[in-house]
Amino acid sequence: MNATFAIIGSVFVFVAAVIHLWIFALESVLWSRPSTWKQFGVRDERDAEVLRPMAYNQGFYNVFLALGAGLGLVLLGTGFSWEGGIAIAMFALASMVLAAVVLVTSNPKMLRAALIQGAAPLLGLVFLILSLVA
Length: 134
Known about the structure:
Elements: H1 3-29, H2 34-39, H3 45-78, H4 82-106, H5 111-133
């Protein structure tokens, strides 16, 4: 195992978790604010209310991914279960990356959001893989 790559990967895992916690907050906690739903391309309050249950649900998907990444980091960092930690972290990261791919392929106008959502997990995944093979 390459410790340098593992540390760099862990930093990106942490960043990805924080981004997904923020997305959770936007979708599930702060959705009623016009500034929030406008970030998601929702034009008016009526549409925001229609989308509220979906946004709330989607927010929890994001928090669960963040918690998976966080659990992976805890297991990696404590040495309790390095193999389990890397497996959980990599699963969470791969899920985040794939969700970003789905976002941009379903709506190319969401490229910026997909990059925000997917860049850190992709880099984390690459560095964790490198830590295993280098």
